Amino acid sequence: MTDADLSQQLSYLIARVNRIVEDDLTRRLQPGGFSIEHFRILKVLEHKRPLAMGELAARVLVEPATLTKIIDKMVSEGLVIRLPDPADRRRVLISLSPAGECSALNLLGISRDHEERIAQGLPKRDLHRIRQILSDLAWDWERV
Asked: If you average pLDDT over every residue of the chain, what do you get?
């Protein structure tokens, strides 16, 4: 492979697949008025809460300043609540509100359908290995 063969570079292939996958998820979320960031926040908080803003930002793949704006909007929509951290009064924790819990449950079908759509193009026997490769790749780059 030459440097000029962009379409075969791993970074390009990963970015291309990411764009396709995110476009599909965006299309699925649009009727409910949710963004991908809202979706990720609801899904993360559904399984682990409350979370500090920094940890939540890392888990949903957004910058902390951007997360603050998103959380402000989600608080005004009644989807999440801010809580004081009992261990450190300077920190704020984010948790789902009852409406946020309901929204997270309603997104379960979208999440499942989206995941199934991604898996359709892959051999079932390879899904676990593909997940492992992508996880290892992310882990390796995060340590750099």
From this structure: 92
Name residues whose C-beta falls within 8 Å of residue 114's C-beta, 6 or more positions apart in sequence.
21, 24, 25, 28
Q: Report which residue type is found at 32.
A: G
Q: What integer pLDDT is reported at residue 40 of this predicted model?
A: 96
The angle at the Cα of 28, spanning 26 to 30, to the nearest 5 degrees, equals 65
CB 110 within 8 A of CB 24: no
Here the tokens at position 43 are: 């899904």
Burial-class residue 87 by CB neighbours within 10 Å (0-12, 13-18, 19+): exposed
For residue 61, how many other CB atoms are within 10 A of its CB? 10
Strands (E), the chain: 51-52, 80-85, 88-96
pLDDT confidence of residue 4: 64
Alpha-carbon Rg of the chain, whole angstroms? 18
- Is residue 29 within 8 A of residue 110, CB to CB? The reply is yes
How is 6-20 classified by DSSP, letter by letter?
Answer: GGGSHHHHHHHHHHH
Residue 2 reports pLDDT greater than 70: no
User: Could you tell me the pTM of the whole model?
Assistant: 0.86
